[in-house]
Here is the input.
Amino acid sequence: MILHKKTILPAEWAPQDAILLCWPHESMDWEPILAQVEPVFDQIAAAITGSESLIIIAHDRQHQSAISQRLNLKGLNQKSIHWLLHPNNDTWCRDFGPIIISRNNQTIALDFQFNGWGNKFEFDADNQLTAELKKQQLLNCDVEAVSLVLEAGSIESDGEGTLLTTEKCLLSASRNPLLNKQQIENQLNTQLGCERILWLKNGQLEGDDTDSHIDNLARFCSSDTIAYASCDDYNDPHYQWLKLMEAELKQFRTTNNLPYELIALSIPKPLYDDGQRLAASYVNFLITNRLVLVPTFNDPNDEINLDKLQSVFTDRKVIAIPCSDIVKQSGAIHCLTMQLPANSLKDKLRN
Here is the structure.
């Protein structure tokens, strides 16, 4: 059944007004490696501001001043940077930022509930981010609160009514324990306008504390192309997990009943922190108006996967962002950012 025919969740490659980026702070878990990760945030900021507005979420005025000073020292023109002052619990604004839709040609920011990836971490401040964006007069659209617990990193939209996600995450008892699969589907159909949902039963990465977010496993590059994490090492436990996922992806069909073009992005060699394997994936890339920012890990697969993605995103330039330290906190570029589609930002703030 197709509900809300005029409701659309834009694909990430649709025109954007801005990107959200929550800057790390010494009061967060980043404190031990802050000196190593802030230069990476510098690179992300420099790349994004070349083509669109960037909203940096800072802890307070003092934090904003410190960020601004370091960006000045990097020679970054801050004309395209805007600020939101809000003391978040963490930096992964992909999962607690607004999910913006178009309904009857009206832009609406949906404020889904965020509960710290299934009550694993503190989340009270993070869960207020969308309301703060409206309160601090950055958004040019209405905000609607939604009772469903949902992180944007757990869903992928092709912009044409198809949603890609994982059962392990969306059906986890720690998120919406009172809802079954059909009830969750109904809510996603109603809120996001999706006409069909492609559910992955398989696929996981060691060190991932999101319960298998789709944005570390498989991503739409276009309405008929999916890039996915793969593994060719028989001795790696990921081999079986990702081969099973690959088999599922091969069975999926586009709305024209054709197989998807599948782009295999081999995961890097194992990375560890304090004996714990890290959830490193090239799939965690960010699509902006002119660029694709791709995490790299000082690995032989870096250049191979960058070339593969460049061959797919022929209208954008693929940029490498070193993430060997970023993944120590269990995420990468896509997790750190959230796009605001066209017509969601105040006119005076658009680049």
Observations:
- The first strand starts at residue 7 and ends at 8.
- The radius of gyration is 19 Å.
